Amino acid sequence: MDSILEVCHLKKYYHSKKKEMMALKDISFSVYPGEILSIVGPSGCGKSTILSILCGLLSSSSGRVEYPVNIKIAYMLQEDCLLPFKTVLDNCLLGLQITHSLTDESKKYVIHLLNTYGLGDVLHHYPSQLSGGMRQRCALIRTLALKPDILLLDEATSALDYQSSLIISNDIYKIIKKEKKTAIIVTHDIPLAISLSDRIIVLSKHPATVKSTYSISFDSSMTPVERRSNPIFTSYYEKIWRDLDVTI
Ligand code: ADP
Fold first, then answer.
1. Could you point out which of 27, 107, 131, 156 has its C-alpha 20 to 30 Å from the C-alpha of 62?
2. Pocket lining for ligand 1, CB < 6 angstroms
3. Rounded to the nearest whole angstrom, what is the distance from the C-alpha of residue 116 to the centroid of ligand 1?
């Protein structure tokens, strides 16, 4: 299968007045249509830097990111960043408004997503009236409203308590697969990555290189929560944990 995105030998330095700091040493990987790819690595190793380069917020110091010309990439940040003075619906329409692509049809699509994914009853509520999980789902639908080809998710569940994080990871998985999106998820949470992904890339400590890649194969009917209680879950966990080489 042809890849939808190729990352070739990315290197990134951050500069301050006094020094230069290498954040990424050598990062290469491919992303295939329809897959959920997770990038895991210790805190501070350069995961968010990779996402920022992929969506064009940062430029790399060297190396290339290659993807088809018409591809749309959307970035969902760690915090849900919902505007407190706008309703759920208006928050989800914001990207369309900013990009001048709000039409009757695109609004209908957003309302359809909100109805399908359990927010139909709270269209006119404000973010403060929602649970953490609902807020995160709302942020995901706001991202999907622009019909991106690739979704970038940065620690999408880390602001939530454990139970909400399990529930929203099920939702994220269901939505991404049902809407046939490609997703790149950055996380330090190995169980989350195993429960959601088709493939996992493990990064070294800072400055980051790709240390190993795992194809994750579970029965496609399994939900992320069901994956967690499957015996092979632990074997993936042990391998990835060993690769992370974290000193306790
Ligand atoms: P991760 O997402 O894996 O936690 P980051 O990509 O946020 O890691 O950061 C990688 C390294 O680059 C860290 O050491 C961090 O302190 C540093 N860094 C990140 N952003 C900047 C910046 N704007 N200026 C200088 N250093 C930065």
1. 156
2. 14, 21, 23, 41, 43-49, 206
3. 37
* More confident call, 117 vs 36: 36
Q: In angstroms, what is the span from residue 86 Cα to ligand 1's centroid?
A: 32
- Segment 187-215 shows an average pLDDT of 94
Name the residue with the closest Cα to ligand 1, atom 14.
44
**Residue nearest to ligand 1 atom 15, measured at CA:** 44
Instruction: With respect to residue 86, please indicate whether it lies within any of the assigned structural domains.
Output: no
DSSP string, 78-102: SS----TTS-HHHHHHHHHHHTT--
Q: Where are the alpha helices (DSSP H) in 68-223?
A: 88-98, 104-116, 132-144, 162-178, 190-196
Number of domains in the chain: 1
Residue 145: which residues within 8 A CB-CB, separation 6 or more? 92, 93, 95, 96, 106, 109, 110, 113
Domain membership flag for residue 66 = yes
Q: What is the CATH number of the domain that holds 64?
A: 3.40.50.300
Q: Please check whether residue 45 lies inside any domain of the structure.
A: yes
pTM equals 0.90
Is residue 148 pLDDT above 80, yes or no?
Answer: yes
Containing structural domain, residue 36: 5-71+149-244
Give the tokens for residue 223.
């939900």
> Which residue's CA lies nearest to atom 22 of ligand 1?
14
- At residue 230, the 3 state secondary structure works out as coil
pLDDT tens-digit map of 48-104: 999 999 999 999 999 999 987 788 999 988 788 999 999 999 999 999 999 999 999
Is 124 a member of any domain? no
